[in-house]
Amino acid sequence: MSAFLLYIARAGLYLSLFYAFYLLVMRRTTFFRLNRVLLLAGSYLCLVLPMIPLRTVSASVAATEVTMVGVGVAAEQSTQAVFPWKEILLAVYAAGVLVTLVLYVLSARKMVRLIRCEEKIERDGCRLIILEQDTPSFSWGRNVVIGRKDLQETPAILTHELMHVQHRHSLDLVLFLPIQLLFWWNPLVWITREELRLVHEYEADEGVLQKGIDATQYQLLLVRKAVGQQRFTLASGFQHAKLKNRITMMLKPTSSCWMRWSYLALIPVLAVFMFACNNPKKNKKAQEVPEAIQEVPAADPVGYTVTVTDEPVSFSEIEVKPTFNGEDANAFAVWANTQLKYPEQAKADGVEGRVIVQFTIGTDGAVRDVQVLRSVREDLDAEAVRVVSSSPKWEPGKQDGKPVPVSFTFPVVYKLQ
User: Fold this and answer.
1) Residue 121: is its pLDDT beyond 70?
2) Does residue 120 contact residue 137 with C-beta atoms inside 8 Å?
3) Cβ atoms of residues 158 and 127 within 8 Å
4) C-alpha angle 153/158/163, rounded to 5°?
5) Rounded CA separation 338/296 (Å)
6) Confidence at residue 262, expressed as pLDDT on a 0 to 100 scale
7) Each residue of 157-198: pLDDT tens digit?
8) 60-82+284-417 adopts what CATH topology?
9) pLDDT tier for residue 57 given thresholds of 50, 70 and 90
10) Can you give the three-state secondary structure of the chain, one letter per residue?
11) In this structure, are residues 373 and 357 in contact, taking their beta carbons and an 8 Å threshold?
12) What is the pLDDT of residues 311-359, one digit of tens each?
């Protein structure tokens, strides 16, 4: 559940970045077909980007992970009451999706009912639904709904709607609908949807003028019809809002071909965000499955250093290794695995990582001088220190038959699989 919400948040971040670029750079260009295609393709690409895993692990860390004792930590259920913020957030999100979907279903139902009940004729490769009342025209699929008066007196309106049908603008709105449902909470998604519909109007207006219709008369027609209201959210209509933008775009010269390459500027920006959002310490799938305990290779000397004087002595010079409950260091890893509890907030945030803890096994076998060498997050560090500090006494290491203090480096692995 938290993994899904995390995915939605990350995908929403990519979408916001992409749409902000379009609104700031590309919305004023005359590349109507290109903007249509890239708005839809870019939206779905933003849904895929959070699923691409990226990892950056240094050689020194990789070597440490192979040779040192590790412990997997199970995500345990807390005995304390925890406020169910994830469940509430998911319920609010689901309610928003449901409300958005219901509104579209109601709009589509009214539109389908109107298309079915009125007079229909086949013309110019589309189905005309002719209304007796004076009503704003619109198109959906290959259906064009238009008033009889507009059909007879202003053929430019029919030409405009035929452009919508020819360019399949209704298909764009259907393809954009899942984006709206998943990201109903993101205002840039709704703004971009209106921008997509405006691009449809630009393209339809361009098609009308290419048919030889006088631009001045057509613009005056737009002004006369501007008081009409758009009736259906999934349809393309002649009386679309932002009339000033449409007229300005008709008068605007064709954009430079070099502007087509502006979208390439997004590639390095998205790459940076991908690496930032795929931090190996965060953003993992959170299923509560413990990781298997990693064993130390039998002949591996890494992990221990012995202090006889002020200078540490390598493991190979230790005569008697320290033992835990009569067994080797792996027994301590098993014990620690039973004591560690995954901090609830870290579990909710999907945070994982490896905390490297160093402590000293004194000559009396007690654990002291616990410190964090490599941190992940404050709550994860604190839990690792708590468990190590509560360790029972060890059998101390010996050199020349005498107990000596041993400095032990121990990684605690927090893993949500």
Assistant:
1) yes
2) no
3) no
4) 155
5) 18
6) 81
7) 999 999 999 999 999 999 999 999 999 999 999 999 999 999
8) TolA/TonB C-terminal domain (3.30.2420)
9) very low
10) CHHHHHHHHHHHHHHHHHHHHHHHHHCCCCCHHHHHHHHHHHHHHHHHHHHCCCCCCCHHHHHHHHHCCCCEECCCCCCCCCCCHHHHHHHHHHHHHHHHHHHHHHHHHHHHHHHHHCEEEEECCEEEEEECCCCCCEEECCEEEEEHHHHHHCHHHHHHHHHHHHCCHHHHHHHHHHHHHHCCCCHHHHHHHHHHHHHHHHHHHHHHHHCCCCHHHHHHHHHHHCCCCCCCCCCEECCCCCHHHHHHHHHCCCCCHHHHHHHHHHHHHHHHHHHHHCCCCCCCCCCCCCCCCCCCCCCCCCCEEEECCCCEECHHHCCECCEECCECHHHHHHHHHHHCCCCHHHHHHCCCEEEEEEEEECCCCCEEEEEEEECCCHHHHHHHHHHHHCCCCCECEEECCEEECEEEEEEEEECCC
11) yes
12) 444 444 667 888 888 888 788 888 888 888 888 888 888 888 889 988 8
- Outline which parts of the chain fall under CATH 3.30.2420.10: 60-82+284-417
